[in-house]
Amino acid sequence: MNAHRTLIISVFIVASCGLAYELIMAALASYLLGDSILQFSSIIGLYLFAMGIGAHLTRYIKDEDALVRFIEIELLVGIVGGLSALALFVAFGLAAAPFRSLLYAFVLITGIIVGMEIPLVMRVLHREQAAFADLVARVLTFDYLGALAVSLLFPLVLAPRLGMARSALLFGLLNAAVALLTARIFRAQLPCYPALRRRALLVLAALAAAFVYADRITFHAEQSYFGDPIVYERHTPYQRLVITRWKDDTRLYLNGNLQFSSRDEARYHEALVLPAMQMAARAERVLILGGGDGLAAREVLKYPQVQSLTLVDLDAEMTQTFASSATLTALNGGALTHPKTRVINADAAQWLEESSEQFDVILIDLPDPSNFSLGKLYSVPMYRQVARHLADGGLIVVQSTSPYFAPNAYWSVVATLEAAGLATAPYHVYVPSFGEWGFVLAGKGATFPVPERFDVPTRYLTAATAAEMFRFPPDMARRDVEPNYLNTQILVHYFEEDWRDVQR
């Protein structure tokens, strides 16, 4: 193979690997620490800064040593970058506290090493008497093409099929393969070729072994973190889904955050669904946004007058899992496969924009507004869009995080619904797994008489408990906060600040 062509192909591969490590570590921060603009921005910024340091350090490498150093750098980045995700999973499972420091250490070290790759390749090509203008154009072209390739493959193929740890190891193997191939092509110029070849084969063997056992290692690390035995785990294109079971307690975690415990989820889902179903003028056509576990749908389908239930959830893996697993369908009563239920896997905001259907009850059971992509689903434009689908006499319910632990965020949701032109009735319920949790009833100029009875079987709600839900003690009283608009996304800031004050 032509030496120039080998190095140009190497540029494509190393560019792919370099961006992949950055994406993987940013995704891990999202999965394990909770997604936020600050985390993604800081990781990307630190990684690019570190690459600049690495590029600067190459000036201290002599031209005659550039080829050997490039091969050694590829082996080093293969080890460090390839093992980064696996090491971070293990560290988080053992002790969450130092995870952030270790994460940024990996970002810094990997970025420095990656930053040395392209300058060294260009110096080797220049030494081989390649024309400088052609050299720069070809190197940068393949650098950008490699970045494009991995930016598409990572979210669509690699993350959902291989997971974070094995994706990083795959790119580590590619870095080591580039080192071995480059050493072989240029072996006539490398007196140390036998030693480089042995080191490359050793690195390849170590990474291959880690790739084979990665799922087993991450499983044990997550087992340590979650405590209860893991019965199902999956990377989807949108989130990390983990289900645990201990005795009669089944729990769902999304990106490490508890979504429900089967022991007390009835409190949450009855509070979310039943007040609106009792109060609505009609409750024949129902829409659920989110709620891919089917537990809210279970409560809706208790009402015989329901003619149709439409559930819109982004993650097909989520809805398929809760529609097919015997353990999980026992929890949701087979609600996702019920003849009245229509499951649509789509972005809620986009689906609302394209649909013209009207509904008597709209239940919004989406994840908390922990980042801007979720915060837009709690915005004034979103609620105006929701109201457009509300039939006369219909009601909306929004799960709205904790009015006790995140009071500014909770009351911002209330203010946002009111800014969208809706009347509101805030309420809350105590769920042992979460603590105090908040909801908001809303409608077009509606009144909200507290139900004096429930026409369906309940495990928690009664007329007395329902009346108590709509009363707020002084430590959860309404606050003067701003509504959430798309251009400011103030709700995300409220949410992050509130939870930062209470989390340890």
How would you characterize the overall build of this protein?
The protein is an alpha/beta fold and 504 residues long. The protein is 57% helix and 15% strand. The chain is built from 17 helices and 11 strands. The strands form 2 sheets. It has a 7-stranded mixed sheet with strand order 7-6-5-8-9-11-10, sandwiched between helices. It has a 4-stranded antiparallel sheet with strand order 1-2-3-4. Helix 2 (37-57) packs parallel to helix 4 (99-115). The longest helix is centred in the first third of the chain and has 54 residues, at 132-185. The protein is elongated, with a radius of gyration of 27 Å.
SSE arrangement:
Layout: H1 3-33, H2 37-57, H3 66-94, H4 99-115, H5 117-127, H6 132-185, H7 193-226, E1 230-235, E2 240-246, E3 249-254, E4 257-261, H8 265-279, E5 285-290, H9 295-300, E6 308-312, H10 316-324, H11 326-332, E7 341-344, H12 348-354, E8 359-365, H13 372-375, H14 380-388, E9 390-399, H15 407-419, E10 423-431, E11 435-443, H16 463-469, H17 490-502
Parallel strand pairs: 5-6, 5-8, 6-7, 8-9
Antiparallel strand pairs: 1-2, 2-3, 3-4, 9-11, 10-11
